[in-house]
Specification:
globular
Length: about 270
C-alpha cells in the first residue's frame, strides 16, 4: 500500500505544467468552526465548541488549471459535558481547553473532464496543519498539540447554475493526504513529571513519525456556492467538513464543521 501511495505521488507531480491565464482573486472569510476533539494521551473526555474561524486565500482560475493558496485559522474554547461543578472527577479533569487551529495549504488542479453538467478537476496539494490545545490543569501536559505536513490528492467538481436570475457556481471538493509527517508530544500524559534539563522548544519534534493514508486517515470536504457582486467581485458561502485520527503515542481524533462567508476581490 505504501508503494502505491508513493507511485501516486509521483503521478501527481508529473501532472504539473500547462494552462493559459484568466482570473485572480484575493479572499477574506469569517465564520464559525464547530469542532470536537478527543485526545486519549491526556484524557478520555471529549471536548467540543465553536471557535471563531477566519481565512485569507488567493485563487487563480485558468482555462485548464485552478490554483489556490489558503491560510485558515480558528481560536476559541472547547468544553466537555463530562464536567459538573461540585462533582469530583479527579485532579486532571478540565472543564474547558483553549484551542488554536491553523492550516496553510496550496493546490494546483487540472481539468480532467468537461461537460454541460459540470467540470471535474484533479491534482496535488500540500498542507501544514497545527492544532494546539492549552490547559494549565494538565501540569506538564498543559500544552498539547498535533503538527502535520502532508502531500495530498485533491478532487473538485464544479457546476454553473442560475438562481434568481444570477449566474451561480457550486463546488464540491475532497482532499486525501497521501504521505507526510505527524508530530505529537513526547512529554504529555505523564503527571508530576517535568524535565527541567530541557526546554519545551527542544522537545517539540521529538515524537515525529512518517504519516501516510494508512495510519493517518484524514478526510476533508470543501464546499461552496459562489455568486457575483459589483465590480467583478464575488461572494462564497462555504461549508467544510473534516475528520482525522492518529494513534501515536495514543489515539487522537478531531472532527469539524465550518460555516462561513468568503469575500473575493478580483485582482486581474
Amino acid at each position: 500500500m505504501k508503494k502505491l501511495a508513493i507511485l501516486f505521488v509521483v503521478f501527481l507531480c508529473w501532472q504539473s505544467g500547462n494552462a493559459q491565464g484568466q482570473e485572480g482573486y484575493w479572499g477574506l472569510a469569517v465564520g464559525i468552526r464547530s469542532q470536537t476533539v478527543q485526545d486519549q494521551l491526556i484524557t478520555r473526555s471529549r471536548y467540543s465548541g465553536g471557535p471563531i474561524y477566519f481565512m485569507i486565500d488567493h485563487q487563480r482560475r485558468k482555462t485548464q488549471k485552478l490554483s489556490h493558496f489558503q491560510f485558515e485559522g480558528s481560536i476559541g474554547s472547547l468544553k466537555t459535558r463530562e464536567f459538573e461543578l461540585g462533582k469530583s472527577l479527579g485532579r486532571y479533569q478540565q472543564p474547558k481547553v483553549t484551542s488554536y487551529w491553523n492550516e496553510i495549504s496550496y493546490g494546483s488542479l487540472f481539468l480532467i473532464r468537461e461537460s454541460e453538467k459540470g467540470n471535474w478537476w484533479f491534482g496535488p496539494s500540500i498542507s501544514s496543519l497545527i492544532h494546539v490545545r492549552f490547559s494549565p490543569r494538565w501540569d506538564n501536559s498543559s500544552i498539547n498539540y498535533d503538527f502535520s505536513g502532508n502531500f495530498q490528492a485533491e478532487l473538485s467538481y464544479r457546476r454553473n447554475f442560475q438562481l434568481f436570475g444570477k449566474e451561480m457556481k457550486g463546488n464540491i471538493g475532497f482532499k486525501l493526504p497521501l504521505i507526510g509527517f505527524m508530530t505529537r508530544p513526547v512529554f504529555a500524559g505523564v503527571p508530576e513529571f517535568l524535565d527541567q534539563e530541557r526546554s519545551f522548544e527542544s522537545q517539540l519534534f521529538d515524537n515525529t513519525s512518517i504519516s501516510w493514508v494508512g495510519n493517518f486517515p484524514r478526510f476533508q470536504f470543501d464546499n461552496f456556492v459562489e455568486f457575483p457582486i459589483y465590480g467583478g467581485n464575488k461572494i462564497q458561502l462555504i461549508y467544510n467538513w473534516e475528520y482525522y485520527s492518529f494513534q501515536n503515542p495514543s489515539l487522537v481524533q478531531t472532527a469539524a464543521h465550518t460555516l462561513g462567508i468568503n469575500f473575493l476581490m478580483r485582482t486581474r
